Structures are given as structure tokens and as C-alpha cells.
Amino acid sequence: MGRTTTAVVIESDGNDDWYEGIKPPDDPASLDSKQILDIIKEAGIVGMGGAAFPTHVKLSVPDGKK
After folding, report:
1. 16, 22, 44, 61: least buried by Cβ within 10 Å?
2. Residue 37: enclosing H or E segment and its boundaries?
3. What is the mean pLDDT of each run of 10 residues along the chain (66 residues)?
């Protein structure tokens, strides 16, 4: 049985329009690492390697590690 491949192509319209449900922080420099990771997690950002590995997991440092 053959495999079906599906691709999604996203083209930019060149506009800098923000979705109403997303409000950038007033002062990003004031955020701590936990707040940044929470934003990344909430946004659903994943890697581009094909496995959709969550970026917030990749950036999280295990307890006891630097």
C-alpha cells in the first residue's frame, strides 16, 4: 500500500498583523525564564525536525542542572 504525503505551504502576505488573542509583553526584558517558557508553551511552538518536539521542553533545564 502506498504512502500519502501531505504538505502545508505558508506564504507571508507581508503584513505585520497580530492575532487579537496574542498580546506581546510590554517589557520582554523584564520576563524571567519561567515566564518565557510559559509563553513558548502556550504558543505551541515546536521544532521543525518533523517530530513536532515541543520547544519549551527542549529549553527547560532539569532540576539540579545549569
Report:
1. 16
2. helix 33-43
3. 83 88 86 93 90 93 86
3-state class (DSSP) for residue 54: strand
Q: Which helix H or strand E contains 58, and what residues bound it?
A: helix 55-59
Site of grid cell 529549553: 59
The distance from CA 59 to its chain's CA centroid, rounded to whole angstroms, is: 11
**Residue reference for cell 517589557:** 27
Helix then strand then coil, in percent of the chain rounded to 5, is 30, 5, 70
- Model pTM score: 0.61
- How long, in residues, is the chain? 66
